[in-house]
Amino acid sequence: MVKNLFGESPFVWVALSALFFGMALSRSTFRVRTAEDPHRARAIKWSFVSIYLSVFILLGLCAVFIPGPEKIVNEKLLYLFGGVSVLSFLAFRFKRSLGSLIFFSVFLFILATFFFLRNFNAFTGETEIAKIKILDVNEKTMRLDIVQGENSEVIITLKGDYFAPIVKEVIFDDYFVFLGFKTWYRFLGVTSFSFVKENGRMVLKQMGSGYYFKNPHGISEDVYQFFEKYEGHIPGVKTVQVDLSAKRARKFGEYSVRIQNDGGIQIVEVF
């Protein structure tokens, strides 16, 4: 959950950077002429301004490079930055009159943003479980290069012209997804299909038994069987199932196999 918020979205980083930007602006407007030692007070003032600006820049860089530069191109981020900066400035500049109220408002705003993003990421997030590259396709067979993680790669040959990952899933209810749970999976292998004519119509038929990994990624078979056996008695579990999603193989095509947080397999071509 924390990884999703801070690793996949720039909104939290931008809100935090705006908070420190407002603090820097507030501190820079403090008057030091009436202080007992104006020179010392001025040095302390600009020291704090420098610290706040440094943190602001650091958090701004995090907003760009951690989620990715492509995600920072969003006009909503400008409104968020401006709003939090103004509230932060007012909160720290006028502590005695409006400070407490505005500071509390900033806190509630950031908290609301936090929960909104957590909710958004929970229901729209996904987990990549493998990458598949089609090395060759002909009339009868296709050759696939399957990569899981950094140190697991296998090249296989299957009959047919559609490939389908075989994945066992434990899918949780929506309120568990909201709390940060992701679909549990066990990636068993890959099978294949082709359209064949039967009884005067074209049907999608499995071609052979497919390929099964010696050490499937994901949860263990014992854990999956436990949830499958007691599915109706385990609170928070929506369904336990085997998912097959077929995709037509295109020569030299590269595909990302992804599991959605709320269940389901998606095969996305990578360009």
Compose a concise summary of this entry:
By secondary structure, the protein is an alpha+beta fold.
Task: Provide structural commentary.
- By secondary structure, the protein is of the alpha+beta class.
- It folds into two domains: 2-123; 126-269, no CATH class.
- Helices cover 43% and strands 33% of the residues.
- The protein contains seven helices and eleven strands.
- It has helices at 2-8, 11-28, 38-65, 75-93, 95-124, 174-178, 221-229, and strands at 126-137, 141-148, 152-159, 162-172, 184-198, 201-206, 211-218, 237-244, 247-248, 254-260, 265-269.
- The strands form two sheets. Strands 4, 5, 6, 7, 8 and 9 form a six-stranded antiparallel beta sheet that branches. Strands 3-2-1-10-11 form a five-stranded antiparallel beta sheet, with no helix packed on it.
- Strand 2 and strand 3 form a beta hairpin.
Primary descriptors:
271 residues, alpha+beta, 2 domains, six-stranded antiparallel β-sheet, five-stranded antiparallel β-sheet, 7 helices
How would the blueprint of this fold be written?
Elements: H1 2-8, H2 11-28, H3 38-65, H4 75-93, H5 95-124, E1 126-137, E2 141-148, E3 152-159, E4 162-172, H6 174-178, E5 184-198, E6 201-206, E7 211-218, H7 221-229, E8 237-244, E9 247-248, E10 254-260, E11 265-269
> Overall pLDDT, averaged?
82
Strand content is 25-35%
Largest sheet composition: 6 strands, antiparallel
Q: In the residues, how many domains can be counted?
A: 2
Q: Helix/strand-derived class?
A: alpha+beta
* Broad shape: elongated
